[in-house]
Amino acid sequence: MTGHNPTLAKPASDVTAITGFIGLAGLLVWVVICRNWAGIGETFGLPGPRAPLAGPYASLAALLFSAVPMMAWAVFVEKVHRNPSTGIDWDNSKPVSDILDISITKIAGLWATWAVIGFFYCVARWYWDGQYLFAMEVLGFAAMPLFILSVPYVLWIDRVMKQPRDHSWHFGALLIGREEWDAAEVKKHWRAWMIKGFFTAFMISILPGLFALVVNADIPVLIQDPVTFAVLLFNVLFLIDVQIGTVGYLVTFRPLDAHIRSGNPFLAGWLAALLCYPPLNQAGIFTYQVNTADWAHWFAGQTTLLWVWGAWLVVLTAIYAWATIAFGLRFSNLTYRGVITNGPYAFTRHPAYLSKNAFWWFSIMPFLVTNGSWTDMVRNTVFLAVFSGIYYWRARTEEAHLLSEDPKYREYYDWMSENGIITAPLTKLARRLKSRTSNPAVVQPAE
After folding, report:
1. Which of 96, 139, 207, 305 could serve as a FRET partner for 363 with CA atoms 20 to 30 Å apart?
2. How far apart are CA 334 and CA 447, in angstroms?
3. CA 438 → CA 98, 290, 434, distances in Å?
4. Most distant CA pair in the chain, distance
5. Which domain holds residue 368?
6. Does residue 212 lie in a domain region?
7. How far is CA 34 from CA 67, 206, 315, in A?
8. What is this structure's pTM?
9. Chain CA centroid to CA 81, Å
């Protein structure tokens, strides 16, 4: 760290503020088309049912409507393929003969990696039940095209990469056993692909349900009631978060400057993150909704309060979705893919975690239970507090990862400590507490 300096300038974000919103616009266009498909089909005489397109494959198509506009904007307007951070030199392309051996080694590493991930999908029982079945269907269908297309892609990208012997090459060299390989690079390779393998399946699995809820929503009916209207907006915002986030996991390409530069190297970071997702978060360890209701139950009959409380929860959900939109093409857990300093990240280093946890506390209210049991009140409150603590732990491990990777993030960290609307007051409070505990001999005056 460089030390605390209130005169520091906020470093520029590696992703412009508009990129994610272009993807959002594409998604909303597709949602409108799907909701009105019956009329569109009737008008143009299109084949198929005269009904909204709310099926799982329509949700997959939404990824194209989000990803393609963002990729086009990034390449043709922002020229991200020219960024030095891509590691690409487009002006000095090498002949295929010069990189063929490197590419074969890299392809061997990639194919072996995908085979291991596929084996993991096969033996991990939770992938063959419930919502994960659709994800397995999609990934199974995509496997063969992925293997085939990887050959021309690797040959093409290796011709222009400054250092084509990347993490994948080192793993391939390990397998082939005919080149020097670096164990640290192999670890980086596997961290990145374990993240993609785990979270891509999870994100695809939750796409169809959210998409169907939004496309099939009866908006004129739902907006008449504060609770149903708020829930509709929750679903729209959660859909935005999941769709943009899924694009981030899928398009980790160097020409888009969206490649995974490193995965979190800290075991604590992995444990904190995985505790927040299936199957670990479904083990019942941190159950905090025993005999609870929710905000709609406790405020029933108080129409004004329901509208106000619902609006507040929508604001929190919107901040959460905005935090994902700010990443554009680069969203993913446990990775370093550049530094984001705009959008909600101009106010706090962890807007998604802060808003998500606030949403849980204000919507669930675990300290209120329907059976009047003090035991349930205490347990629910304690376990939600523990779960929020896990998110704090997760945030700290992510900071440790990024602080070790990029001087720009260290600049952002210091700037936020002094200037962040939310972060700065908390930082000052932490300093006061630390100074008091480090000077126990100081005698406080009597009241």
Report:
1. 207
2. 48
3. 61, 41, 6
4. 84
5. 17-426
6. yes
7. 17, 18, 26
8. 0.94
9. 22
